[in-house]
Amino acid sequence: MVVNKYEILSEIHSGALLRLFTSQVNFKKRPLENHHHTMIEISLIKQGSGIYTVSDRTYEIHQGDIFIYSSDEPHCITEITSNVDMIIMNVHFEPRFVWAPGNGMFDEKYLRVFNDRGEDFSNRLKYDSEDTAEITRQLLDMENEFERAEPEYELMVKIRLLTVLVLLCRSCGFADNVQTGEFKRANLSALDAVMDYINQNLALPLSLDELARQANMSRAYFSTTFRRLNGISPWEYIMVKRIETAISLLEHTNDTIIEIACKCGFNNTANFNRAFKKITNRTPSSYRGG
Q1: How far is CA 20 from the centre of its chain?
Q2: Residue 26: which residues within 8 A CB-CB, separation 6 or more?
Q3: Position 116 pLDDT exceeds 90
Q4: With contact defined as beta carbons under 8 Å apart, do 86 and 67 qualify?
Q5: Model pLDDT, residue 178
Q6: What is the mean pLDDT of residues 23-38?
Q7: In this structure, are residues 245 and 202 in contact, taking their beta carbons and an 8 Å threshold?
Q8: Please, which residues have CB within 8 angstroms of residue 249's CB and are 6 or more apart in sequence?
Q9: In sequence order, which residues have a C-beta less than 8 Å from that of residue 144 and are 6 or more positions away?
């Protein structure tokens, strides 16, 4: 259950570039329902303890822990072991909130902690480090900025986020080898425009060749650049966005499932149900209590 939610909306693109919200998770053992989204996630555990399942790993959860997840990384709280509900503050942001042209000192290099992982990577930050303590302060300051909504609060939220990303680079050992951005501004602008096109045309039979042509890139370079900047492939991005749209339509319209499937780019319910189950571990009808 979402207790409160704040957003920074794009002045150019449709939808939110950053969300900060607090969730309350009821005390009980929970089924594995992997959570997917195209946004990067940073979570602060404000209350409670339990178990996080992330792909094939499990982590114990304690109050004060911070977890980080890359785009489309499946994760789920599978158990709450305390006798109180768990309270989690989540920060979700689109990778292009960081790398898109016009963001000043923001740069794709600060996302490598999410995308360039070694075998010893941990989704849970070290609890007793100074960097983790400072990241916690910055996250709480972001929440405070949203709550007070004083003049230029969105700028302050962006500054806090950039600080968190730098601290993450330091904490995870990326500070020494973080290099300046290697992508040309024209390429970033082209990729930004293509992502807008995808989001506005999810019902169409999108193809990698078509998207690469729109970006004026070869198919291979487009795919490589897209993954480097967003942490997922173009096709993975399209599929998750289609399912996110489908969930919204299931929850807020009376459209039939076949109508929703067509609006989200699926030519039959079998393909729709298969993709929906893969990404949410649920059926479309379950979002309507069916």
Answers
A1: 11
A2: 1, 80, 85
A3: no
A4: no
A5: 47
A6: 70
A7: yes
A8: 255, 260, 263, 264
A9: none
What φ, ψ does residue 59 adopt, rounded to 5°?
-130, 140
User: Which of residues 177 and 184 earns the better pLDDT score?
Assistant: 184
Q: Which amino acid is at 120?
A: D
* Residue environment code for 234-268, b if the CB has 16+ CB neighbours within 10 A, otherwise e: bebbbbbbbbbbbbebbeeeeeebeebbbbbbbee
Token pair listed for 103: 């963001």
Neighbours of 147 (CB within 10 A): 12
Rounded distance, CA 254 to CA 12, Å? 30
CA 125 to chain centre: 18
pLDDT tens digits, residue range 120-163? Answer: 889 999 888 898 999 999 999 999 999 999 999 999 999 999 99
- 252 to 1, 260, 264, 283: CA distances (angstroms): 17, 11, 15, 16
pLDDT at 49: 92
Backbone angles phi, psi at 195, to 5 degrees: -65, -35
Q: Report the alpha-carbon distance of residue 208 to residue 24 in Å, rounded.
A: 39
Question: What is the rounded CA–CA span in Å between residue 209 and residue 222?
Answer: 9
Look up residue 104 and give its two tokens. Answer: 């000043």
Average pLDDT over residues 245-263: 92
Pairing, β 66-69 against β 2-9 = unpaired
Long-range (24+ apart) CB contacts under 8 A made by 101-104 are 101/185, 101/188, 101/189, 101/192
Burial 161-191 (b: 16+ CB within 10 A, else e): bbbbbbbbbbbbebeeeeeeeeeeeebbebb
Q: What pTM, to 2 d.p., does this model score?
A: 0.84
State the Cα–Cα distance between residues 175 and 167, nearest whole angstrom: 9
